[in-house]
Amino acid sequence: MDDNASAGQPISEAEALERLEQRADPSQRYYAAWWLGRMRCQNPKAISLLIDALSSVLGQPASPDDLMVARNAARALGKLQSPAALASLLQALEHSDHDLREAAARSLGESGDANALPALLETLNRSTMEPNAASQARLDQPCEALLEAIGCLAKGSKDPNICQALQRFCQHPRPMVQSAACRALVLVSGDSQWATGMLNLLNDPEPLIRRGAVLDLGASGWRDAAEAIAGCAAESNIKLLALRQLLEQPLHGPAPSALGSQERHLLNLMDGVL
Amino acid sequence: MSQGNAAALQTQLQAIEQAATRQQLANASAQLVALMPQLSSEPELQGQAISCCIDLLKANNPAAALQALRGLIGCGAAAVEPLLNSLDERNYGARAWTVRALSAIQDPRGLAVLQRAVANDIGPSVRQAAAYGLGRLQGQNQSMLRQCLESLELACSDSEWSVRYAAVAALEQRLQQGLPSELDQQARSLLQQRSQQDMDDTLVVRLRALLALERLAA
What is the pLDDT of residues B113-168, one digit of tens each? Predict the structure, then answer.
């Protein structure tokens, strides 16, 4: 077998399945898991191998190599949106490894399955929001991923219990968590008053935070944010992506099927950031 | 006057050289760029400022690079040769800024660089900037227009949506400025294709193509 096989070269589906199934070389498994998700592989064997790779670290001690493969398997399962993966992903939210919990939370958000909501909320509520959280490498829970997933799955539900749980995180010591909480609140409540927290962060001195706020506003679908996004000091490709989301996934109503005055306005703003 | 400009330029170049933090470098760059309009009648001084701006594009400091980009765009045609000579195949970030500058300056000498970027660059944002620039190169030279359309056709089938979006906007620009009838046909049919669901899976690209067709019909 060639030496750079795991360095991102094109492989076939059969080869990817073979690499994930073998146990001798974890880096081959790691790459194969990523590849299957990236290619949106719908082969049932891919899903069962990925679930196996994830389950093998749940409820029992796992080696760092197995954990690394399991994280990629969890990420891939989100992209494949298989209902069969729900139980393992939910169980992974309880794992001691922060990054595995994060991958599971994101994938549950992508799954579109509202059955995941109670577990996501419970995990979020467990976060203690320590005052020194801003300076820690990792939070006690993957708050951003959890907030993002809850926003996706409860969009438009106006559920007061969910909104209450989310509001606590608008005061989080980390600006990116505040932004994620505001985004989720806009999506769940449909009320744009929560967008203010994101709008304020567009002027943050830190470029990473401005970038995050631009993307969160875009994902909220609140179209009145378009000018503020276009005028933010952030990379044009980030602004373009956020404006695209406002256009394609408006907060209220379905994706547009024709050009209305709002769509024309958004397209003009997009041309301006090219 | 020239003495005063020379001294002011030396001060700014020194401030850039001595900047110790990213923020200081960005601030010093902004001051250099503010001085540049005064240098436009003194080619030697302007050349020094241009070459400093080009170095700033390579400094891996987006805030400074953004300033330098503004300065270079302000110099227009005078910045084109130095930019073309500065292209560094190994420095992805700097190449992206260079393509962006050439796109904005709209000088037809940038054609070959923009074409190469659309065809080969691994960075989507570089291909996007190049495609947009192909819509704005000045001039009505038939051969240049044909080459622009060839590259825009390629950009229309790029795997990255933002490159296709930029190509659609560029095609509209070229059509608005007028094309010989054969090229006009080609550009319109590319827009038609991008507006159709079975040809493009990205809603925003289809809507942008529809907007272009609508405005061209008006």
Answer: 999 999 999 889 899 999 999 999 998 899 999 999 999 999 999 999 999 999 99
In chain A the domains, ranked by start, together with CATH numbers, are 1-127+139-153 (1.25.10.10), 156-274 (no CATH)
Cβ A264–B165 below 8 Å, yes or no?
A: no
B52-65 pLDDT tens trace? 999 999 988 888 99
Residue from the list B62, B128, B204 with its beta carbon closest to the beta carbon of A244: B204
Residues B135, B209, single domain; the answer is: yes
Let me know whether B179 and B194 are in one domain. Answer: yes
For every residue of chain B, DSSP letters joined together read: -HHHHHHHHHHHHHHHHH--SHHHHHHHHHHHHHHGGGGTT-HHHHHHHHHHHHHHHTSS-HHHHHHHHHHHHHHGGGGHHHHHHH--TT-HHHHHHHHHHHHHHT-GGGHHHHHHHHHH-S-HHHHHHHHHHHTT-----HHHHHHHHHHHHHHHT-SSHHHHHHHHHHHHHHHHH---HHHHHHHHHHHHHHTSTTT---HHHHHHHHHHHHHHH-
- Shared domain for B91 and B150, answered yes or no, is no
pLDDT tens digits for range A124-161: 999 987 777 777 788 899 999 999 999 999 999 999 99
Contact of B207 with chain A, judged by CB distance below 8 Å, is answered with yes
Domain co-membership, B150 together with B215:
yes
Expressed as residue numbers, the domain containing B5 is 1-99
Is residue B86 located within the same domain as residue B123? Answer: no
Question: Which tens digit of pLDDT belongs to each residue from A245-262?
Answer: 999 999 998 999 999 999
Contact A247 B128 (CB under 8 A): no
A48 touching B (Cβ < 8 Å): no
pLDDT score for A219? 97
Looking at this predicted complex, what is its ipTM?
0.86
Average pLDDT of the residues in A148-175: 96
Looking at the structure of chain B, the number of domains it has is 2
**Residue in this structure with the two tokens 């944002």, named with its chain if needed:** B125
